[in-house]
Amino acid sequence: MINIRIFVFLLAIAGLANAVEKSEDIVVGTIETIHSNVLNEDKKIWVYVPKTNAVRGPEKPVYPVVYLLDGNDHFLSMMGLMEKKCRGIGHSCPQMILVAVTHNNRQRELTPTKAGSYAQPEKINENSGGGEAFSTYLEKELIPYINAKYPAAPYRVLVGHSLGGLTVMHNLINHSALFDAYLAIDPSVWWDNALLVKQMEEALSDGRLANKSLYLAVANTLAKGVSIDQVRSGSDQESRHIRSILKLVDTLDAHPQSGLRWKWKYYPDEGHGSIPILAEYDGLNFLFDFYKMADFVRLYDAKIDGAGELKHQFEKISARMGYKLLPDLETMDWLGQHFLREKKLKNAHDFLSANVENYPRNALSHEGMGDYYLAANEQTKAKEAYQQAVKLDVGSKAKGKLEKLTK
């Protein structure tokens, strides 16, 4: 196992010379090499797991898993988005594990059938067509490995760009049970005379895509002088990539009763190579649009039962994702502390007591209740709560509060 490190160098400048005084490692994940019997080769994966403070988070958290194709190219951008969007006050998606899959032979693994290249469609590329074996590797080896080694929840997302996007669509159509949500970024569905576009017609008709989610991002790969409206009826080779995607969009549009929850977006200012970061951001927003509260600021209103609304929200999220999720401990503490400052003790109690109920073995939960009892002038109960916090974590800030209260 190898640490992935980004080295941060603190440079001391003396005249024209730069000297490195100190370096610090920022560890964002691990690289693992596992052998695949299905593919008969070693495979490297890059894995990011949310850093959970044992004191401040759930004792044994589990996380949805994002499987990212072409992982060595897109790991850092996706990991950065997940760090920003999926944690902190008012986060818009659950914290997730990121498994970035690298490819020993990209064209073999990311093409579902043997076919010709974009430049020579009439000539069969013998190095293509290993997509089915790759899907078997995902199902039989990689997913079970991740489930066994990491705190993985049953909810899974597949993300891919270009040929990776082709693989995303292939798995949605032919292995839809493997993942719950799919993010296809400018997918190469022109492959094999747009075979997947034809297969999508059947998949949309037989109910296999019900309750699945798809975000489809489309880059501007139009030929010069061709508009987005003209390309559908055109035949120029240069626009074949986007034309096939638009045919896929039309097919999806023609089957509103399929049960597939989907959205597509055209990015007129982004090319095939520049679209991934924006698409990753928008894709996470859509795929988890059921997670974020429509009006988070509403929770600061003392006239409503904010803690009750959050509890109900997470009951709906849990039903949607197939396992129990709880409101974020630090978010609940933040809101409870807000109401303590506002001297709205009932609201504060609702948020802080919910933390003790949800996270009974976390110091922050009991520290928060200690703060509530202190504000309510119940010093004996405050002392007991602070003592419990210190028992769980000797480094808790509750220790100083307990000493001050005791004196």
Task: List strands and helices in order, with pairings.
Blueprint: E1 2-14, E2 17-36, E3 41-48, E4 63-68, H1 71-85, E5 97-101, H2 106-109, H3 131-149, E6 152-161, H4 163-174, E7 181-185, H5 191-205, E8 213-219, H6 240-253, E9 261-267, H7 276-287, H8 306-321, H9 329-341, H10 345-358, H11 363-375, H12 379-392, H13 398-406
Parallel strand pairs: 4-5, 4-6, 6-7, 7-8, 8-9
Antiparallel strand pairs: 1-2, 2-3, 3-5
Helix pairs in contact: 1-7, 4-5, 5-6, 9-10, 9-11, 10-11, 11-12, 12-13
Q: What would your notes on this structure say?
A:
By secondary structure, the chain is of the alpha/beta class. The protein has two domains: 260 residues, 3-Layer(aba) Sandwich (Rossmann fold), CATH 3.40.50; 108 residues, Tetratricopeptide repeat domain (Serine Threonine Protein Phosphatase 5, Tetratricopeptide repeat, Alpha Horseshoe). It is 42% helix and 20% strand. It is built from 13 helices and nine strands. The protein has a nine-stranded mixed sheet, sandwiched between helices. Helix 4 runs parallel beside helix 5 and helix 9 packs parallel to helix 11. The longest helix has 19 residues. The chain is elongated, with a radius of gyration of 25 Å. It starts with a strand and ends with a helix. About 4% of the residues have low confidence.
